[in-house]
Every structure is written in structure tokens, then in C-alpha cells.
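Entry 14. Structure prediction run on the chain below.
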Amino acid sequence: MSVTVFHNPKCSTSRNAIALLREKGVEPTVVEYLKIGWDRATLERLAVRTGVGMAGLLRKKEADAKALLDAGANEEALIAAAIAQPILIERPIVETNKGAVIGRPVERVLDVL
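Output returned:
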């Protein structure tokens, strides 16, 4: 099974998700999205596969994300903002052939194994 973790190494939850996967015998492909950024296709796919839409992928604690959500920004504006500021996306996101989840709490990553 292919497992991809969209990861921020500074985030303890993201690091813990990778550790949990490895404990379960899974060696994930790790994508450091802050380094490589986001593209439209990946964001759209994750928004659908997680079932939370673009608004659900945003980190509510980030001031810019909160401002967009409070203003009722549409999907296009949310995608553009996430591409411009990759930090706006929640982490970790784990994607497999079974689906995708935001790993908060970290045990949620087991739902797609």
C-alpha cells in the first residue's frame, strides 16, 4: 500500500503521525509541503478525498486562514491562498488508496490503512 504524508517537520503531531505509521510497519512517502509548495490538483484532490473541502483543510489558528474563512472566501480564493502560503494547510494529511485524512488526533491516520 502506498502511503503519503504531507508533513511539516516542525509539527510534533506530524512527526508523531509518521512515527505511528512506522510502528505499524508502514514506511510512508514524506512530502514536505512547505519546501515544495502546493499545486491546484493536489489541493483539490485532498479536499475531496478528506471529505472536508478546502475550508476544512485550512489551519483555523493561522490568522490569514481565519480571515479568509470569516470573509466567506470561495474555493478559488482558498486554493489561491494555500498555493501562495503553504503554511495555511492543516497537517499532517495522510493519503492512501483507501482515502485521505487530517491526522488530528494522530490516531486518525490509522483510518486509511
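Residues 12-23 form the longest helix (12 residues).
Filed with the rest of this week's runs.
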